[in-house]
Design brief:
Shape of chain A: elongated
Order of helices and strands of chain A: HHEHEHEHEHEEHHHEEHEHEEEHEH
Strand order of the largest sheet of chain A: 3-2-1-4-5-6-7-8
CATH architecture of chain B: Roll
Distance between the termini of chain B: 39 Å
Strand content of chain B: 25-35%
Helix content of chain B: 10-25%
Strand order of the largest sheet of chain B: 2-1-5-3-4
Shape of chain B: globular
Helix content of chain A: 25-40%
Order of helices and strands of chain B: EHEHEEE
Radius of gyration of chain B: 12 Å
CATH superfamily of the largest domain in chain A: NAD(P)-binding Rossmann-like Domain
Largest sheet of chain B: 5 strands, mixed
Oligomer: heterodimer
CATH class of chain B: Alpha Beta
């Protein structure tokens, strides 16, 4: 009996529908939280040709939600590790792993080789790049994105429907939206949203039911509420992207305010007076900074605690690795709070530097 | 006019609630937005779009809706 028997016995699919699935070529951007369930179900369904692009490697903290990987995949490239697992699941399909970063130079050529593009990326730069490359190559885009306990799903650039830019015309300038690695995410959420994306892909291939083209599905895992918002096509958005079609591959990713944040070593501040040190980690994060007077405001609460920030002092912001502190400084700059610096070192390095400094100053 | 306002994603972190109702007498979506911006100061720092009765609308749209949602973009994956 055929591997796809349970598809074929559905009168809505049949052998004819299964043949359409076998003929389909689908490119998945990112083999992370969303990419894993998308790839798993599309592989199991028998999508004949699958592409996976991801330059990142598997880390231990990925295993909480990126269900294609195990301990044996740690340190491996995600696209390659996903391919190895998926070929075991189904060796009758062709899978190509691209262990590289999607960029303006490779996007159009790559997208041209596939019928449907699925976005499982985790940052706005890639999301807008994917959207615009889909407009240029005229490919339907199955979109999914998550934040903590909430998710969004849609189908863009399909049958004269809207694009992502018709919903959100430009990437957020304010750089105030952290990603999963910074703020956390409920592990099962990308499983739900990615599975919904896989479902949209199959509906497009099978021309079955109604896709989410022209609609944005919003899901809240805590309330189990789903709302579907209508999104209209804005023709000017398409014209604007197509106008620059020929120079697209030369586009440089715009650096937002993140790049302008000054990174300064903790050592610069130790001998200075009139400094307010701000720890933007969550309350439970270790290590605690022992020998420094520190104001503690988690990044997620920053904007609600502006009154605690001393405008008469220099502000030196730190976190666990130096990423959130940069975001915090961007937010403070956007709020016209000046004299803010992001400390290069993370909390444990700061503790080490403090110890060194005390040794020197007590000699 | 009685309006229910829903706050999605990181917007709810600014307003500290996912939903509230209020009486409003203005005629445009932008007027309601101004009221919300004065109520929640840090809303100014957020990017979002507005849906009126489950349809994305521009801020200049006439306010007709019983339900308004503030929808931010999500990047996570």
């Amino acid at each position: 009996m055929s591997r796809y028997n349970r598809h074929i016995i559905l009168s809505e699919i049949g052998q004819e529908g299964q043949d359409k699935i076998s003929d389909a070529k689908v490119l998945v951007i990112g083999a992370g939280g969303l990419g894993c369930p998308i790839l798993q179900y599309l592989t199991a369904a028998g999508v004949g040709s699958l592409g996976i692009i991801d330059y990142d490697v598997v880390e231990l903290t990925n295993l909480q939600r990126q269900v294609l990987f195990g301990k044996s995949s740690l340190g491996q490239n995600k696209a390659k590790a996903a391919k190895a697992r998926l070929q075991d699941l189904n060796n009758e399909i062709s899978i190509v792993a691209y262990p590289e970063k999607l960029n303006f130079t490779n996007a159009v050529d790559l997208f041209s080789q596939y019928h449907i593009i699925v976005d499982g990326s985790d940052n706005f730069e890639t999301r807008y790049l994917v959207n615009d490359a889909c407009i240029i190559t005229n490919k339907p885009l199955v979109f999914g994105a998550i934040y903590k306990f909430e998710g969004q799903v849609s189908v863009f650039n399909s049958k004269n429907g809207p694009s992502y830019r018709c919903l959100f015309p430009n990437p957020p300038k304010k750089d105030s939206i952290p990603n999963c690695s910074e703020i956390g995410v409920l592990g099962v959420l990308p499983g739900i949203i990615g599975t919904m994306q896989a479902n949209e892909v199959l509906k497009i291939i099978l021309e079955l039911g109604n896709t989410l083209s022209g609609k944005l599905l919003c899901y809240n895992a805590l309330t189990s509420q789903i709302s579907t918002l209508k999104v209209n096509r804005n023709e000017a958005v398409f014209q604007s992207v197509l106008k620059d079609k020929d120079s697209f591959h030369k586009t440089k990713i715009e650096f937002n305010c993140k790049a302008e944040v000054k990174d300064v070593s903790i050592e610069t501040f130790l001998s200075e007076k009139n400094i307010q040190f701000i720890d933007v980690r969550e309350k439970h994060e270790h290590p605690i900074i022992g020998d420094l007077e520190v104001l503690h405001i988690p990044l997620s609460q920053l904007e609600n605690n502006l009154d605690k920030i001393d405008v008469t002092k220099k502000k030196a912001v730190f976190c666990q690795s130096g990423i959130r502190s940069k975001q915090a400084v961007s937010i403070l700059h956007a709020l016209n709070i000046n004299d803010c610096f992001s400390i290069t070192e993370g909390a444990s390095e700061i503790n080490d530097k403090l110890k060194d400094y005390q040794k020197i100053s007590t000699k | 006019m009685h309006i229910t306002i829903k706050y999605l994603g990181q917007i709810a972190e600014v307003t500290n609630t996912q939903e509230e109702s209020l009486e409003f007498s203005g005629s445009l979506v932008s007027e309601l937005l101004e009221t919300l911006l004065s109520k929640y100061d840090s809303l100014k720092t957020k990017d979002f779009q507005i849906a009126q009765n489950q349809e994305l609308v521009s801020f200049e749209t006439k306010l007709t809706g019983a339900e308004i949602a503030l929808l931010p973009p999500f990047a996570g994956g």
